[in-house]
């Protein structure tokens, strides 16, 4: 969790409806890569902490007996349930809770996944709790976009979304320091998951980069949805000025692409895996 920032329930308030349309997907083979790496064969349980609208949970459901998605935002869980119904996924369930509420009576898991959510938690505390929830040899998985891909010299067929201009507009409306719920992130979100997990007793780290790079065509509505899907520009942060902000946002988009069409490359997906030691017995509550 970021220094000086306190979690509150408005972090992603109102963003769930924009997630599927606004967020670029993970690399097409990320779920297959994760399943192959972890030898998932349709057995075992997977816990997705900070599951949002079920992006990872639903992709991994076919490889597990059960997937459990945990998120504190009721709107995200409602969207996850809607997506599960739409896709015909019947072995997923959704629990309203924070990572700090774990183990929450959820039992043991073969895999626990944090997809770009671990940085919002009390990481030292949560890592120890998750370690105790994993079966011996179980995996703690961190999924994210690959942050430093090599440049692709091939020109895009359409203009790229004007992310720098969007960021400037958000700052003009919400202030120069990144917003997060009712608070601000002066120094951004923390990194160095490796140090946190080593301190919690995880070992045998593996890194996998799942390639992507496909050209994705996007419309102005998609970019607006991306903005409102983010914690630092969630709809509620703009208050009565939301309509004015969206009007100005669409003006910025038209200045870059008058017909509202954009293109960008799908980023590779980075998967980091840490293991709970094989020979270690799971502790029961009375062991603590």
From TrEMBL:
It comes from Protofrankia coriariae. Keywords: Methyltransferase, Transferase. Pfam families: Methyltransf_25. Residues 47-138 form the Methyltransferase domain. InterPro entries: Diverse_substrate_MTase, Methyltransf_25, SAM-dependent_MTases_sf. This is Methyltransferase domain-containing protein.
């Amino acid at each position: 969790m970021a220094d000086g920032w306190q979690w509150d329930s408005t972090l992603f308030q109102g963003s769930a409806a924009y997630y599927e349309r606004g967020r670029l997907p993970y690399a097409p083979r990320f779920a297959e890569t994760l399943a192959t790496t972890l030898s998932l064969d349709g057995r075992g349980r997977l816990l997705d902490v900070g599951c949002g609208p079920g992006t990872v949970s639903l992709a991994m459901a076919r490889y597990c007996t059960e997937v459990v998605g945990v998120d504190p935002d009721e709107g995200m869980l409602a969207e996850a349930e809607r997506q599960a119904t739409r896709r015909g996924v019947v072995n997923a369930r959704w629990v309203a809770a924070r990572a700090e509420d774990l183990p929450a009576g959820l039992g043991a898991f073969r895999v626990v996944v944090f997809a770009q959510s671990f940085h919002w938690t009390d990481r030292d505390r949560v890592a120890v709790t998750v370690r105790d929830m994993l079966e011996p040899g179980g995996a703690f998985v961190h999924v994210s976009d690959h942050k430093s891909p090599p440049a692709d010299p091939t020109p895009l067929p359409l203009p790229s979304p004007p992310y720098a201009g969007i960021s400037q507009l958000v700052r003009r409306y919400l202030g120069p320091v990144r917003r997060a719920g009712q608070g601000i992130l002066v120094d951004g979100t923390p990194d160095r998951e490796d140090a946190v997990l080593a301190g919690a007793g995880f070992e045998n780290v593996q890194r996998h980069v799942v390639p992507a790079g496909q050209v994705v065509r996007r419309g102005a509505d998609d970019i607006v949805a991306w903005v409102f899907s983010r914690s630092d520009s969630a709809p509620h942060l703009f208050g009565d000025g939301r309509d004015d902000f969206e009007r100005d946002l669409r003006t910025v988009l038209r200045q870059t692409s008058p017909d509202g069409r954009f293109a960008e490359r799908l980023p590779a997906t980075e998967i980091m895996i840490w293991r709970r030691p094989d020979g270690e017995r799971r502790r029961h509550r009375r062991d603590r």
